[in-house]
């Protein structure tokens, strides 16, 4: 290989540059940052296991949406037999009443932008 | 291990028995689980149901504008319908037409003069043979099998506007702009729509699910609008349709509209 020292040096510089954000976060101590979510003000338990909801709430919401809109099936029966209305604006936000402190915090952290709120109304915020 | 015929038959028999017993076991389990349901968290009242929802509008009562002037307002407030203030962008679920626009095929100049002065509420006819459903490429609109309501799934609408073209009644409106800033007072119990989505009357299916009659029926005075089950021979709508002569809009097109107008 011609000019191997130069090429290798270039490669090293390239690798350092491309991984710079990682080193930067490690150095500044923000690498292990996890968003602190606001706990719901009322309600002892969620409609399903918290760990399940954490990973799959979007699937739950999609299922609820399809069942409520397309099959007119609006009541969710939880494992303990409690019945819930399949409603994002009401059932979910009844307990998780602070959307900024709950939904947005995590969505911002993982950089997702769900469009639920383009149409669905955040109860208090939109009340004029 | 070789399986001889005898062992195979034994296993097959046991399997069949197990399959047959499973529904029984499930039934027993269901009976148990039903008992622990706490009714206190049920958020809704008994839904109103019918085999075929239909609407009957009394044209004679529409001659008095007082009877129906609040219908459109009540509907549009309940469903977060925006008001853009220009007819090109207008969104309408229920609105008023005159005789010559609502019923142009039966209209002629010698018809009883007072009928020409009526304001007739028109809305989605929830056709039995809905052309909008036939053309929708994403099944964002469909006819509910159990009660005939022509529903919309705004999540699924891609805004192609085939349905707007297909509907002969102009019952479908398209959101050319983000409607939210143009809603005077947002009803938190109902979603708004977004730009690029078609919307129309849903016979207040969200209210029916809560055991309430449609908002326009509630807002109309003197039973000008009656809502009921067409499949039930003793229902209010069937009685009215038996007693009085009725019209349907553009019935010659074969869409089988389910909003009837008593003459």
Descriptive account of the structure:
The complex is a heterodimer of chains A (about 130) and B (about 260). Chain A has about 130 residues and is mainly alpha-helical. Chain A has 7 helices and 2 strands. Chain A has helices spanning about 5-20, 20-30, 50-70, 90-95, 100-110, 115-120, 125, and strands spanning about 75, 85. Chain A has a two-stranded antiparallel ribbon with strand order 1-2. In chain A, β1 and β2 form a beta hairpin. The longest helix of chain A is centred in the middle third of the chain and has 22 residues, at about 50-70. By secondary structure, chain B is an alpha+beta fold. Helix content of chain B is about 30%, strand content about 15%. In chain B, about 35% of the residues are buried. Mean pLDDT of chain B is about 90; it is low at about 30-40.
In short:
The complex is a heterodimer of chains A (128) and B (263). Chain A is mainly alpha-helical and 128 residues long.
Strand content of chain A: under 5%
Q: State the assembly state of the protein chains.
A: heterodimer
Number of strands of chain A: 2
The SSE order of chain B reads: HEHHEHEHEEHEEHHEHEE
So what's the overall shape of chain B? Answer: globular
- Main sheet: strand order of chain B: 8-1-10-9
Structural class of chain A: mainly alpha
Provide the low-confidence segments of chain B as ranges: 30-42
Secondary-structure element pattern of chain A, one letter each: HHHEEHHHH
How much of the sequence of chain B is in beta strands? 5-15%
Q: How helix-rich are the residues of chain A, as a percent range?
A: 55-70%
Shape of chain A: elongated
Query: Mind telling me the C-alpha Rg of chain A?
Result: 22 Å
Major pleated sheet of chain B: 4 strands, mixed
Helix content of chain B: 25-40%
Number of helices of chain A: 7
Mean pLDDT of chain B: 89
Strands of the widest sheet of chain A, in order across it, are: 1-2
Question: Using CB atoms under 8 Å apart, which protein chain pair has the greatest interface?
Answer: A-B, 26 and 29 residues
End-to-end C-alpha gap of chain B: 83 Å
User: What is the makeup of the main sheet of chain A?
Assistant: 2 strands, antiparallel
């Amino acid at each position: 290989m011609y000019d191997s020292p130069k090429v290798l040096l270039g490669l090293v510089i390239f690798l350092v540059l491309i991984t710079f954000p990682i080193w930067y976060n490690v150095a500044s101590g923000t690498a292990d940052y996890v968003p602190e979510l606001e706990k719901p003000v009322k309600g002892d338990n969620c409609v399903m296991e918290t760990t399940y909801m954490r990973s799959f709430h979007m699937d739950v919401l999609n299922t609820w949406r399809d069942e409520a809109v397309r099959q007119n099936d609006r009541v969710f029966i939880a494992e303990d037999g409690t019945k819930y209305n399949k409603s994002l604006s009401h059932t979910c936000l009844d307990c998780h009443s602070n959307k900024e402190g709950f939904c947005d915090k995590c969505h911002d952290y993982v950089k997702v932008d769900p469009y639920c709120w383009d149409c669905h109304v955040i109860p208090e915020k939109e009340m004029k | 291990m070789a399986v001889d015929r005898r062992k195979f038959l034994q296993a097959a028999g046991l399997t069949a028995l197990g399959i047959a017993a499973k529904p029984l076991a499930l039934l027993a389990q269901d009976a148990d689980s039903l008992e622990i349901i706490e009714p206190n968290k049920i958020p809704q009242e008994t839904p109103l149901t019918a085999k075929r929802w239909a609407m009957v509008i009394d044209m004679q009562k529409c001659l008095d504008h007082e009877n129906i002037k609040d219908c459109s307002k009540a509907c549009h407030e309940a469903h977060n319908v925006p008001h853009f203030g220009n007819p090109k962008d207008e969104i309408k679920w229920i609105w008023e037409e005159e005789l010559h626009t609502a019923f142009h095929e039966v209209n002629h100049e010698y018809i009883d003069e007072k009928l020409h002065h009526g304001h007739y509420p028109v809305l989605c006819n929830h056709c039995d043979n809905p052309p909008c459903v036939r053309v929708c490429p994403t099944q964002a609109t469909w006819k509910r099998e159990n009660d005939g309501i022509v529903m919309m799934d705004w999540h699924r609408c891609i805004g192609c506007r085939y349905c707007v073209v297909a509907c002969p009644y102009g019952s479908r409106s398209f959101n050319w702009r983000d409607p939210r800033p143009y809603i005077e007072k947002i009803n938190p119990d109902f979603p708004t729509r977004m730009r690029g989505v078609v919307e129309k009357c849903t016979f207040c299916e969200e209210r029916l699910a809560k055991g309430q009659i449609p908002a326009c029926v509630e807002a109309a005075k003197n039973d000008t609008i009656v809502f009921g089950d067409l499949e039930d021979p003793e229902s209010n709508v069937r009685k009215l349709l038996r007693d009085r002569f009725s019209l349907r809009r553009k019935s010659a097109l074969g869409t089988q509209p389910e909003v009837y107008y008593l003459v």
